[in-house]
Amino acid sequence: MPSAPKKNPSFPLAILKGRVKNHAPTNFTPNFQLYTLFPTPYTPHPTPYTPLFYLPSVPFFFILLFSAVFSFADKRASLGDMDNATELVGAGAREIAMGKAAGSDTSAFVAVFWNPAMLAFKNDLAVSLNGKIDDPLGSADKFGAFGIDWGFGGRLSVGFAALYRENEKENTEDDILGYAGLGYRLNRLNGIGVSLSILSNKYQSPLSFDLGWYRYWNAKWQSSLQVRNLGFNSRLSAAWQRNSSGDISQSAELYLRPKTFELGITHRNFLLRKPASVSLALVSYQTADTLFVFDPDWHIFKGHAGFEWAVWHELNLRCGLDGKEISAGAGYNFSVGEKTLSVDFAYPFSLGLRARF
Known about the structure:
Elements: H1 13-16, H2 58-73, H3 86-89, H4 93-97, H5 111-114, E1 125-133, E2 142-151, E3 156-166, E4 175-185, E5 190-200, E6 208-216, E7 221-231, E8 238-242, E9 253-257, E10 259-271, E11 274-286, E12 299-312, E13 315-322, E14 325-336, E15 339-347, E16 350-356
Antiparallel strand pairs: 1-2, 1-16, 2-3, 3-4, 4-5, 5-6, 6-7, 7-10, 8-9, 10-11, 11-12, 12-13, 13-14, 14-15, 15-16
């Protein structure tokens, strides 16, 4: 008796890995989702021609995006101890080059850090290692990040990350920030996630958690919503007392990892017949040690914008805005069988390696 035929792997991951042959007609233009790892239905474009700009509204979208970022960046004030905090540096040279607007971009690595809900759309095992120096010509803090995104092939995925800051200032401790999270795909369009994090140094923080939601609207538009740094108390605040002087006769100071609210959106399209994407994130930091405050005086706003363009084969060019700070970079993907190794560089001075198995 003949054996039952084997099921084909899910699309488009199987197409990316070359395991499905002759699935699409020869006269088609691939949808941009083939360049990502979205587990979404495959819908080829009806014509073999890809226009220079896929939609006439794309230039307008760019203008609207950067206008919004600058308007929000004007409202940014000092975050005090959070200004140089490890979590504000980011995790990933690719994402730093794109202005850290990664909360709605499932191509971002270390998803447990950027948005745990994006773990739900990871289909394989990915490992990343990144390093950053603020000022290579002088004495400055050095940063490093290591992350794992692991998709089991079903609805559930896990992720782990560790961020490290070597502080060059006197009487200041080095920081280690750890993350562990879960992502669950509710259906083919929606995913939710939760992660736990703890900041470890001389003044160890309490355990906090992040909540995220991700929505895949179609092959061009995706969005996200998340809340970070929630504490296990009645105020849901990640706050604790510390004595930086070490003198017990001195009063302790309140240290706060402010609640962070982030709304993100990503648009994928074609530019000069090459795949491109643009992402926007609007972030609000609540500096009050209370449950929730809607007074804008207790919130610090910041905008992030990022752009990526697959300009030639496996070469990607990137640029972004982190508030009003300009960033840029590039990356190249090397294929070894079914494995992919990516090398990324970003300004300001970051280098990253990513491997997907």
